Amino acid sequence: MTAVSVQTSRCGWQRRAWRGLKTAPWSAKLGMLVIVLYTLGAIFAPWIAPYGESQIVAAEFEPWGREFLLGTDNLGRDMFTRLLYGGRNTIGIVALATSLAFLLGGVTGLLAAARGGWVDQLLSRVVDVLMAIPQLIFALMLLTLFGTSIPALIIIIAVLDSTRVFRLTRAVASNVAVMDFVEVARLRGEGLNWIMYREILPNIMAPLVAEFGLRFCFTFLFISALSFLGLGIQPPTSDWGSMVRDNATLISYGDLTPLLPAAAIAVLTIGVNFVVDWFLHLTSGLRDEQ
Predict the structure, then answer these.
(1) Packing angle of the helix pair 117-132, 150-177 (nearest 10 deg)
(2) Which residues are CB-contacts of 15 (< 8 A; sequence separation ≥ 6)?
(3) Could you give the domains of the chain?
C-alpha cells in the first residue's frame, strides 16, 4: 500500500467519523458532553477546587451557601472540593483498572482463539474457576489478604474483570480465526503475533470498544460499592462511594448532600452507556429509516 493510498484511507475514515458524529442522536451527544465535562473536571480539579482535598475548612455539616457551595461533610471538609477530587481519583483508578483488564483479558482471549487446543482449554478452565466465585465476595477476600492500597485495588479489580473480557474476546475471535483470510495468513507462514494482532484483532475491535465502555461503567460502580463498604479507596483520599457513606446520616434530616456523589456516579454511568449504545448502532450496520 502506497503512502498516497494510506493518506486517502485515513482521510476517508476521518470523514466517516465526522459524518457519524454530526448525525449522532441527542442521547449520544449528551453522553459525550458528560464524558468531556467529567474529564475536564478530573484533570483541572486542583485549579477549580477552592480548598485542598483533605483540608478542614469549617464545622461539620455546614449548609449550602456562598462560602461553601455544597456545604461541608462530616469532618468539615468542603463538599464541592471533595466532589471534584473524588471524580479525579475514582475516574483515574477506574480507567487504569479497566485498561489493565482489557490488556490481560484481550491478550489471553486472542491467544486462546488463535492457538486453540490445550492452550485454549487451559486458559478457559482457569477463567471458569475464577468466574465461579461471586466477584464481590472474591474482591473482598483478596482485599482483606493483600490490603486496600490503590495499586492492590487496581490489580485485583483488573484481574477479576479480565475474566469477562477473556470470554468476550475468545468468543468473537474464535469466529474470525476460522475464516479464509486467517487460514491464508497461516499458509503464508505468518507468525502467531501477526495472526492475532494484524488479522483477528482489527476485525473484532467494534465489540471490544463497546465492551470497554460497559466494563468501565461496571468497574466504576464496583469500586464505588467497595468504597462505600470501606474496602475501596481509603481516606483521606476522596472518593464518591465513601462520600455517600460518610454523609449518609444527613438523609434522615432531609438533606440532599449525600445524594450528590451518588448522582455524580449515576450521571457518568448513563452518559457512557449513551455513547456505547450509539457506537454499537454505528458498527452494527443498522440505519434509521428515513
Answers:
(1) 140
(2) none
(3) 25-283 (1.10.3720.10)
pTM check: above 0.85: no
Mean pLDDT by 10 residues, the chain (290 residues): 41 55 80 92 90 86 84 87 90 92 93 88 91 87 86 91 92 88 85 86 86 89 86 84 85 83 90 86 55
Q: How far apart are the first and last CA of the chain?
A: 37
